[in-house]
Amino acid sequence: MQSNNKTPRYLEEFHPPARILMGAGPSNVNPRVLHAMTAPLLGHLDPDFIRVMDDVREMLRIVFQTTNVTTLPISGTGSAGMEAALVNILEPGDTVVVGINGYFADRISQIATRCGATVHIVNAPWGHPLDPKAMEAEVKKHPKVKVVAMVHAETSTGVQNPVAEIAQIAHRHGALALVDTVTSLGGIEVAIDRWGVDVCYSGTQKCLGCPPGLAPITFGPRAEEVLKSRKTPVQSWYLDVTLLRSYWSENRAYHHTAPISMIYGLREGLRVVLEEGLEARFQRHSRNAQALWAGLEALGLRLFAQEGVRLPTLTAVHIPDGVSDTQVRSALLRQYNIEIAGGLGPVAGKIWRIGLMGENAKPSNVVTLLSALEEILPKMGYEVAKGEGVAAAQRALAA
User: Fold this and answer.
1) If one looks up domain 278-398 in CATH, what number appears?
2) Could you give the residue range(s) of every CATH 3.40.640.10 domain in the chain?
3) CATH 3.90.1150.10 in the chain, residues?
4) pLDDT value at 264 more than 60
């Protein structure tokens, strides 16, 4: 057999291109976070690492705006946080009402069904927020609703839902309020205690400016009571928060080998968030989103989400008739090193999703993307006024 001296590709070093990640996540990571992740490993019960764990829990409480004792990062992505929230609270036969106006709320419904719960759905059109009156009407139909669940920032549509109002409805009827904040925590306000949210989870790879791999989660006093009164074991050993908090609390009982480097990174990412200040961070995301919206509309593009409920962190925009979704995204990626996301579910091929989260919520990214669209869209047969998108964005930033 003739030898081939060519090195197999899998043995070559991999050098990823430096992309501007303006999709639905992950987002670009703060260089300080990447540096923190190169620190020497410690054992997961090392006293110095335990101090890191304590710092992470304390800072997560500040970012969640809560005093909840059980506040920690799940070892897994945001979907693991979603599953952890549901499997810990739900038991077979429980009743759940889920507000669905996008792809990720539907995933909540699927997991709740796998937990053995009876799920009742309140639908709202994609691009529109949940209707609190419709949510309450559904809750009233069913005795002993245990959980009312929703997504705060629906990543598939760019819509922000009225969490505080729906949480009050849940409590009026003796139910827990469970909320997904994967695309909001660290980018727009999340006020767990003030809103009355009982269970909330997020992810590190979006507004917190860290790589994917951890899912911050918090359980309030009402949820703690539910955990204590369970009649059956949590169906997932790995995601059982009663076991996890024994490791993260003063007991330090071994549960699993924590992703040490990821937790270093989260600690640094949270430091970055708090150094900037929550209010300043929220204003930065809002200011840059408004510039993006102004620029897109100046190009003749229509925003998907209703005005007044649009997410600063994730903008959905209609794809113009006759323009190829994949061709535009491919051109952005290959020619400009910019990633944006396509639509999911019923809006696949109909919208683009543009993220301005964490490190990426800055004027240079807004201008760079708009400039690229001004070059690409005319080649696809969609005429734009050259320079108008960038000019509109700059005016919004200067206002």
Assistant:
1) 3.90.1150.10
2) 31-274
3) 278-398
4) yes
The number of angstroms, rounded, from the C-alpha of 33 to the middle of its chain's C-alpha atoms is 18
**Which pTM was predicted?**
0.95
Q: Is 173 exposed, middle or buried (0-12, 13-18, 19+ CB in 10 A)?
A: middle
pLDDT digits (tens, 9 = 90+) for 139-177: 999 999 999 999 999 999 999 999 999 999 999 999 999
- 397/392 Cα distance (integer angstroms): 9
49 vs 365: CA distance, rounded Å? 36
The architecture (CATH level 2) of 31-274 comes to 3-Layer(aba) Sandwich (3.40)
Q: Which residues contact 121 (CB under 8 A, 6 or more apart)?
A: 97, 98, 100, 109
